[in-house]
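Database export, one record per block. Field names are fixed; values are copied verbatim from the stored entry.
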Amino acid sequence: MKLMAKFNLVLIGVCSVGLGLAGYLSFNILRHNAQEEVVQHAGMMLEAALAIRGYTVSEIRPLLAPKLKKTFLPQTVPAYAATQNFNILRKKHPEYSYKEATLNPTNPRDRAADWETDIVEAFRNNPDRTEVIGNRMTPTGPILYLARPITIKKGGCLTCHSTVSAAPKSMLALYGDANGFGWKMNETVGAQIVTVPMAYPIQKAENAFKVFMGSLTGIFVFIIIVLNLMLRAIVIKPVTSMAKISDEISKGNMAAEEFKETGSDEISVLGGAFNRMRRSLEKAIKMLEDNETRML
C-alpha cells in the first residue's frame, strides 16, 4: 500500500471518529437548547396571558360591569380574554396550545383533564412552587408542557366565583349555579398550561444538526484535500524523485542528476545526506577503478 493511501486511510478514520463524536455531542446539545428555547417562548406566552388576565380584571371588567346585569359578556372573564388572545397568536405559532385548566370552572371547556388535575394539585400541595415543566405521551406522540399556577390574588376575580348570590344573574342564566363557585383569596384554583409537541423542538434540533454536520463534513473534506496536496508537494514528490535517482544509480547510471535540495526541512536534510552518500559512492568507485588500472 502506498504512503498516500496509508495516510488517507488513517486520516479518514480519524475524521470519521471525530465526526461521530461531534455528531453525538452536538445533537444532544442542540436538542437540549431547542427544548430550552421552546420553554422560554412558552414562558413568555404565559406571561403575556397573565398580563391580559390582570388587564381584563382591572380595566375591562369595571367598564362593562353595568351591562352584566342584563347580558353576560365573556370579554369580562380573564380566562376568556387570555384564551382568545392566545388563539390569535396561534395563527402564527400553531404548534403551541394554551389552556387555563381549572378544577371547578364556570365554563366546562376549562375543566382540567386528569393529567392537568395532577399539575394543579401539585401547585396546591406546594404553594412555593411556581412552575412545572415536563413531558407526557399522547396518541400523536410526546408533548412538552409548561405550567404555572392560577392563584386568586385580586378580589375582582371573586365577583363571579365566590358565592352564587354574588354572581351576576346574567352569568347564572348562561352557565347555571352548579360550578365555578366557592373560590377563596390566595387559593390555587387551576393552572395556565402551554403545550407543544416534542416533534417541534426535535425538528428544530435536527435542522440545526444537519447544517452543523454538513458544515463540519465540508471542513473535514477541505482539510483532507489540503493535507493531501501538502503531503504530495512536501513529502511524496521529493521522496519519489529520490527513489527514482536511487534506482538509476543502482543500475549503474552514475550520470543521473542529483537530488535538488530546497529549504532546510527534514526532507531537504535527507536529500543532502543522499547527495553526499552518492558522491562518496562515486569517489569509492573511481578509486577502485584507478586501482584496477594500476594493477593492470
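Remark 1: The first helix runs from residue 3 to 68.
Remark 2: The beta strands are 97-102, 132-138, 141-151, 188-197.
End of record.
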